[in-house]
Amino acid sequence: EPEVTQTPSHQVTQMGQEVILRCVPISNHLYFYWYRQILGQKVEFLVSFYNNEISEKSEIFDDQFSVERPDGSNFTLKIRSTKLEDSAMYFCASSSGGSRRVFHEQYFGPGTRLTVT
Amino acid sequence: GNSVTQMEGPVTLSEEAFLTINCTYTATGYPSLFWYVQYPGEGLQLLLKATKADDKGSNKGFEATYRKETTSFHLEKGSVQVSDSAVYFCALSDRTDSWGKLQFGSGTQVVVTP
Prior knowledge:
The structure holds two protein chains of two kinds. Chain A contains no helices and eleven strands.
């Protein structure tokens, strides 16, 4: 069964450093998402991406964050200068559709745990 | 804005017990409602969904009914198994103001003992 994969499973970085979290969505999916979960808190939406551009983003997704689909398979989340409060589990998801009218199931990866020290 | 509230865990049960996890929501539009499950070391998996009022979602013995009058979507299972031990997330997607983003509750850990 196709699945979303994420690497690395755990990333430790120092405050101020750049990190790139990688995701390989399901191959025929067109819509991509990043969510995060700070320990003990809710899973929060960060950004959605379609047709090589951001379709929606949350207030969390400020100028320090960026997303990219550099080739036909990877979908990356970059944090330019990490802060302590960026420590969280980051989940990637993909779906075959993302319209306002019809629900398309989002398939999630296992997550990357980011620890900023 | 929209939000989802679910009961805190952990919920500890014996095998074959009845499970209920409460979930209530606030939404300005016409949300679809979901339950996701996360098994240890894995990603979130869609367990069931309901897209309009009075719909009942069901899967793997779990059920939840979309109650607009009480703004609730409680998850139930009549007889749990050890393999049901996981974290369960209630979520909504408001089709009137988003392109598919999911808004989650805080998750409820369920522990089923033999």
